Amino acid sequence: MIKYIEETTDYLKDKGFEAPEIGIILGTGLGQLLNNIEVIKEVSYNHIPNFPTATVEFHKGKLIYGKLEGKKVVVMQGRFHLYEGYSLQDVTFPVRIMHQLGIKKLLVSNAAGAINLDFKKGELMLIDDHINLQGGSPLAFKGVEQLGSRFTDMSAPYHPEINSKLEAIAANHNITLHKGVYASVVGPQLETRAEYRYLKIIGADAVGMSTVPEIIVANHLDLPVAAVSVLTDECDPDNLKPVNIEEIIQMAGKAEPNLILLFKELIKSM
Q: What are the TM regions of this chain, as residue ranges (predicted)?
């Protein structure tokens, strides 16, 4: 792992990825932020040594380096998922690379289904805590202690100060920003009615197929991290309709301008 991290980091530094301050992971259907970035360099994932390749059609698969609100950023346009056949170490490898490149903070976004029926599709949820239902840990490998504490504390996985800033920005701009618990499942199938009921019982406010492994690794690296879910559908088990993935992507795009405003204002204040 250490050898792979060094090889990949050296490759990106040679490509001009110099001392980024903030890392950003863009979730499903959330690519419009790139329109606000002054792009300096971009590299396709399949050209980066040791990087997985995005296999989901709506995940573009590029690592982008540029400036946003005067700060140097490195952006993942498309992420990796357990359901693509990758290991949890593969899924989180880019977080380790961004950290090695020099980022001091990580911002994560995703598209999620609303389990809490007080939350409506098209709204945003600030993740305050999570439930890992992916059946494993990205830290469960031999030699992990060489990269950080094996027994990583997760009492406050989402940085309280960054979360407070995001809540203040949302209030100042009249953006609905719920706060809640995100459950991460394997997928790629959507949930059954019984599974939605189960998720509600165990305390989830939203459900998705990503993010939690990346958050665990960020905490392993002592990297302050925050995450926002775009709520793309409402998961009411008593009135469940077949899910249309295209509609989910469209809803993500509709809600994205508020997410972009939050991230831009946050980065400006950092």
A: none
CA–CA separation, 51 vs 9, rounded Å?
11
Q: How far apart are CA 135 and CA 24, in angstroms?
A: 25
Q: What are the residue ranges in the chain where pLDDT is below 70?
A: 54-60
Q: At what angle do helices 88-101 and 212-220 cross, to 10 degrees?
A: 50
pTM: 0.95
12-39 confidence digits (pLDDT tens): 999 999 999 999 999 877 888 999 999 9
Domains detected in the chain = 2-269 (3.40.50.1580)
Rounded distance, CA 156 to CA 167, Å? 17
32, 86 contact by CB (below 8 A): no
Q: Measured on CA atoms in the order 252, 258, 259, 260, is the torsion positive or negative?
A: positive
pLDDT computed for residue 249 by the predictor = 85
Alpha-carbon span 26 to 12, nearest angstrom: 19
Cα(123)–Cα(53) distance, integer angstroms: 30
Q: What is the mean pLDDT of the chain?
A: 94
